[in-house]
Design brief:
This protein is an alpha+beta fold. It has 7 helices and 18 strands. Strands 5, 6, 7, 8, 9, 10, 13, 14, 17 and 18 form a 10-stranded mixed sheet that branches. The radius of gyration is 20 Å and the shape is globular.
């Protein structure tokens, strides 16, 4: 079950088991846990350790306890004590809104969900400020149906009502949603089209990362080459599943990591042009609204990514 751990467990509470690997030898316990569960701040992890919610081989240890490979670290994360999200006046780019549904063009750098130790400054805080009448299950928590990584920009759907949530969630679970991305990857992709069918799970030793592993969950990613540059390729990416870090993991798996992705790749520039964050943008999102209408939303590349393409001499076909 360890490989099935999702970041949602760190947000909603649960028990997570972690095993330090050789590279974690002599690493502090608090740093090891915080790195493995990036949704938790290091300060919050230290609180969990002091409260006895983090055990090493069944024993309570201090935050500065040094890790040894082979140990079992058990982290018990209490459920949120308060379902109330603090409204914050964070600017939002609204693509669509009605009584039930909100579609937002998320900027890079904005975390989607609050987490223990990170209660503010997220997309959810911004949404409840923008739409204070949100009411799902008796709380003001917006129904953020899916998620984007902090440094991935683009379209994200939010349910404002229980009716919307019961309409949208089955579409994501049933893989009937159109999810399209634009990615610039390192290296020249030779085939014009391709599909990556490889299971994804938590990395067996580096718990803050995902990986293609035999025991992972099924994941399917379709690629179409849009434009080739010296040393890089612009791709149109469509995913059927929605695993954590799926596109980034799959592209790194085939030897073409996303440019600017320092977790799964190394290229932070292309052709001498610096790329300050991962070149991955959720550009298309299509689904059915609660009233039955089928809709498709599109988002152009944000200026920072478009500038990279312009400097590469793109023909403007993205």
């Amino acid at each position: 079950m360890v490989d099935e751990v999702d970041d949602a467990e760190a947000r909603e509470g649960g028990v997570v088991e972690l095993r330090p690997a050789v590279e974690h030898t002599n690493e502090r316990l608090d740093r090891f846990v915080a790195d493995a569960l990036p949704d938790l701040s290091r300060t919050y992890v230290q609180q969990l350790i002091e409260q006895g919610n983090v055990l090493v081989d069944g024993y309570q240890r201090k935050p500065k306890f040094k890790m040894t490979p082979g140990e079992m670290v058990t982290v018990s994360i209490p459920p949120p004590a308060d379902e109330w999200i603090v409204p914050e006046a964070i600017p939002l780019s609204i693509v669509y809104e009605d009584w039930d549904v909100l579609v937002i063009d998320k900027p890079a750098g904005l975390v989607v969900h609050p987490a223990p130790g990170h209660p503010r400054g997220t997309l959810a805080n911004a949404v409840v400020h923008h739409a204070p009448d949100i009411a799902l299950g008796g709380s003001n928590r917006p129904g953020i149906i899916h998620r984007l990584d902090k440094d991935t920009s683009g379209l994200i759907a939010v349910a404002k009502t229980d009716r919307a949530r019961t309409t949208l969630v089955p579409q994501w679970e049933g893989r009937t949603v159109q999810k399209g991305y634009v990615a610039l990857v390192a290296g020249v992709v030779e085939d014009d089209e391709g599909t990556i069918d490889a299971p994804i799970g938590r990395h067996p030793s580096q718990r803050q990362r995902m990986a293609v592993i035999h025991s992972g969950r099924p994941a399917l990613t379709h690629l179409t080459v849009v434009e080739r540059f010296p040393g890089a390729t612009l791709l149109d990416v469509v995913i059927e599943s929605g695993r954590t870090h799926q596109i980034r993991v799959h592209l790194a798996f085939i030897g073409h990591p996303v440019v600017g992705d320092t977790v799964y790749g190394k290229a932070t520039n292309v052709g001498g042009i610096p790329v300050d964050r991962q070149f991955l943008h959720a550009s298309r999102l299509g689904f059915s609204l609660p009233d039955g209408r089928s809709v498709t939303f599109r988002s152009p590349l944000p200026p920072d990514l478009q500038e990279v393409l312009d400097r590469l001499g793109s023909r403007g076909v993205a």
